[in-house]
Amino acid sequence: MRLIRLLIAIACLAVGAVIGALNRQLVSIDLGFTHLPTNLGVALIVALLLGVILGGLAISASIVMPLRRRLARAERDAAAGTTAPGAGI
What we know:
There is one protein chain. By secondary structure, this protein is mainly α. The protein has a domain at 16-77. It has 2 helices and 2 strands, in the order αββα. Strands 1-2 form a two-stranded antiparallel sheet. α1 (2-22) runs antiparallel to α2 (40-80). It is elongated, with a radius of gyration of 23 Å. The chain starts with a helix and ends in a 9-residue tail after the last helix. The model has no long low-confidence stretch (mean pLDDT 89).
């Protein structure tokens, strides 16, 4: 499993390096209050990374955290010897 993760990480780094190398045109990103001069490859990689991070946070907040709360409640009920309403149905 570690080897697969390492190979995937190396492949992602290689793809990022290729994208950065092939897109060297200068661009200016306007944030409303400032301009950020950068090259297109860096802008693409940063946009992709921000999308992955924000998507992961959205999934975590909407799915993972409620499931963890439900699991903690079920473990607490099991330790107390009670069952959740409707669990026997």
